[in-house]
């Protein structure tokens, strides 16, 4: 599944074409994706103006001028491409092929922006993505958003907040950091990378980073900073570009080339002076990559 930096990359790539555009017509070429489309979806969205593009965790938000938001999840293989003037702006060399097969074009936003006609096309061969329509003032009531923790890019995430969530917890750090009620949108790849940056074992009990009085230890401060930094670096690089993911302009981000531990089982640790080896263990059904020497 795309992680937060990938979805943020898509949002930034779509914004120049979609924000302030009028949806002349929404075309749905099937009745459902992973879930059925909202009732009268095309009719309710057609004619509306897009006032902004947002993101909550790993979900893209297309905000409309009637107070509704299209909530889109990319699933495993979903992507958007932009067609303007009869040409696609998905040029470039691809490490992993991305579908342009029209039989997988399931949703088409036919737009008009500043006198220009263009289309934004959602393509999804596996159809694990979905689109819902929800009131913007009630987004906190959307089932997938209810109880979500703070964004890893927001000011609400600090060591004091994590200390309150980690205090007296015996769960391993990796498991608790993947809990979306603790931090929204933080996924397997970037948890592994953040723990390596902070020098913390994914197997360590979360409560050991908090003092008996409930204050964050220096290690928890370092972890908080590492989480924010690894997400910021990934967004700057355009996402990890694993498997099918590409940016909306067709180019690939290259953050995967700077992974310190993720998917590097058996490779030497890149921390200067460490000399350890990257190990892989399974936690809650997910692969965890870490250095057995420098992550304590």
SSE order and pairing:
Blueprint: H1 4-18, E1 22-28, H2 41-45, E2 50-56, E3 59-64, E4 68-73, E5 79-84, E6 87-88, E7 105-113, E8 116-123, E9 130-135, H3 159-166, H4 173-177, H5 188-198, H6 218-237, E10 278-283, E11 286-291
Antiparallel strand pairs: 1-7, 2-3, 3-4, 4-9, 5-6, 5-8, 7-8, 10-11
Notes on the protein architecture:
This protein has helices spanning 4-18, 41-45, 159-166, 173-177, 188-198, 218-237, and strands at 22-28, 50-56, 59-64, 68-73, 79-84, 87-88, 105-113, 116-123, 130-135, 278-283, 286-291. It is an alpha+beta fold. The strands form 3 sheets. A 5-stranded antiparallel sheet has the order 1-7-8-5-6. Strands 2-3-4-9 form a 4-stranded antiparallel sheet. A hairpin with a 2-residue loop joins β5 and β6 (87-88). α1 (4-18) crosses α6 (218-237), α3 packs across α6 and α5 crosses α6 (218-237). It is elongated and about 60 Å long. Residues 87-98 have low confidence and may be disordered.
């Amino acid at each position: 599944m795309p992680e937060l930096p990938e979805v943020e990359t898509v949002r930034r790539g779509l914004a120049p074409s979609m924000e302030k555009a009028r949806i002349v017509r929404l075309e749905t070429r099937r009745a459902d994706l992973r879930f059925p489309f909202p009732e009268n979806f095309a009719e309710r969205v057609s004619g509306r103006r897009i006032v902004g593009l947002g993101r909550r965790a790993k979900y893209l938000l297309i905000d409309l001028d009637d107070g509704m938001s299209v909530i889109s999840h990319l699933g495993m293989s979903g992507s958007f491409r932009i067609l303007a003037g009869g040409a696609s702006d998905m040029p470039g060399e691809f490490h992993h092929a991305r579908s342009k097969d029209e039989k997988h074009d399931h949703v088409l936003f036919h737009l008009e922006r500043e006198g220009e006609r263009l289309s934004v096309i959602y393509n999804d061969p596996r159809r694990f993505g979905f689109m819902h329509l929800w009131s913007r003032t009630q987004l906190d009531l959307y089932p997938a958003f209810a109880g979500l923790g703070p964004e890893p890019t927001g000011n609400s995430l600090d060591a004091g907040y994590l200390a309150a969530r980690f205090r007296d917890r015996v769960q391993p750090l990796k498991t608790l950091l993947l809990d979306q009620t603790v931090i929204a949108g933080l996924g397997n790849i970037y948890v592994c990378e953040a723990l390596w940056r902070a020098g913390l074992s994914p197997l360590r009990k979360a409560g050991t980073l908090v003092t008996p009085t409930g204050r964050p230890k220096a290690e928890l401060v370092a972890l908080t900073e590492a989480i924010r930094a690894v997400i910021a670096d990934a967004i700057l690089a355009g996402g990890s570009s694993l498997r099918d993911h590409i940016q909306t302009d067709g180019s690939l981000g290259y953050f995967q080339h700077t992974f310190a531990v993720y998917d590097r089982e058996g490779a030497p640790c890149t921390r200067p002076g460490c000399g350890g080896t990257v190990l892989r263990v399974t936690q809650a059904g997910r692969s965890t990559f870490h250095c057995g020497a420098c992550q304590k």
